[in-house]
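Allow me, if you will, to draw on your knowledge of protein folds for a short while. I have a record of one protein: its chain in single-letter code and its fold written as discrete structure tokens. Could you please explain, in whatever detail you think fit, how the structure tokens follow from the sequence? The record follows directly beneath this note:
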Amino acid sequence: ENMNKKFTTDELTKLKETRERYLVTQDKLGGIEIQKAMLQNSKALVLEELSILQKDEVELGETLRLKYGEGTIDMDKGEFIPKS
């Protein structure tokens, strides 16, 4: 004798909707993880650029210090102000 019981149409509809919502949510989460990975890659590239920039800044500062001595720079006037 078959002991299986049939779901009502409403129950089946709710089960299918729940499964579909679950799949959509999984897809959204997957999309977020992809975006996260892409952002992490972008961040790594920017951090590499920052490292190069910092190195270039130190080298430029050393070059200018050797040429002009100790002091400060007035960027607005484009002038070197020697240390007193």
About this structure: The longest helix spans residues 9-68. The mean pLDDT is 95.
